[in-house]
TrEMBL record:
Residues 13-193 form the Metallo-beta-lactamase domain. Pfam families: Lactamase_B (PF00753). Its cofactor is Zn(2+). Gene3D superfamilies: Ribonuclease Z/Hydroxyacylglutathione hydrolase-like. Residues 193-214 are annotated as: Disordered. This is MBL fold metallo-hydrolase.
Length: 214
């Protein structure tokens, strides 16, 4: 069964998640935006082996530590979708703009597309391309664990910003309703910021995507 622990990192309190297979103890880290020493200490305490970096998108608070962590531990970088090449190329500019430690661009070992899968140990997660916040945003879904790691697509009571370059409100709403809701109302999602919630709860109460027929 897939296990995970979420650690807020960077001044933006971005939810970096460490996910692992409890049978093999093999692990991946989702969106290592920064605070790499803290993340590595957590991995050590958990007694797991970090083997991959998975990215939902390439905004600085999610991807800022990627190049350094990949270099430190010789890890492959998986994701996001090629639509976020623009944001990867601008990581150094993003660092300066938001007063983050200098980050550098990288080339993903593997780009992701809608319908792909990623695996760690005996756990496999489905990949859905969910543009709107950024053009190349992806989401990782574990049907087995009924968990989805959604980055900045959806939050408890809110949705991702669409005013950055490449963002689009209508596209984001469509991604949520067409790509996330079919995962099931009882699926718990881990957002890029803030507390967890379920898709059913957001369909009931989230003012941006509430289903009045629900």
């Amino acid at each position: 069964m897939l296990q995970y622990q979420t650690i807020p990192v960077t001044p933006f309190a971005q939810n970096c998640s460490i996910v692992w297979c409890d049978e093999t103890r093999k692990a991946a880290i989702i969106d290592p935006g920064g605070d790499l020493d803290t993340l590595q200490k957590t991995v050590g305490k958990l007694g797991i082996t970090l083997e991959q970096i998975w990215l939902t998108h390439a905004h600085i608070d999610h991807a800022g530590g990627t190049a350094e962590l990949a270099e430190r531990l010789n890890l492959p970088i998986v994701g996001p979708h090629t639509g976020d090449q623009f944001w990867i190329d601008r990581l150094a500019d993003q660092s300066r703009m938001f007063n983050f430690p200098l980050s550098r661009p990288f080339t993903p070992t593997r780009w992701l597309n809608d319908g792909d899968t990623v695996s760690i140990g005996n756990s496999t997660l489905n990949v859905r391309h969910c543009p709107g916040h950024t053009p190349g945003h992806v989401v990782f879904h574990s049907p087995e664990a009924k968990r989805a790691f959604v980055g900045d697509v959806l939050f408890a009571g809110s949705i991702g910003r669409t005013d950055f370059p490449g963002g689009d409100f209508d596209t984001l709403i469509d991604s949520i309703k067409q790509r996330l809701w079919p995962m099931g109302n009882d699926t718990v999602f881990i957002p890029g910021h803030g507390p967890e919630s379920s898709f059913g709860e957001e369909r009931k109460r989230n003012p941006y995507v509430r289903d009045l027929q629900f």
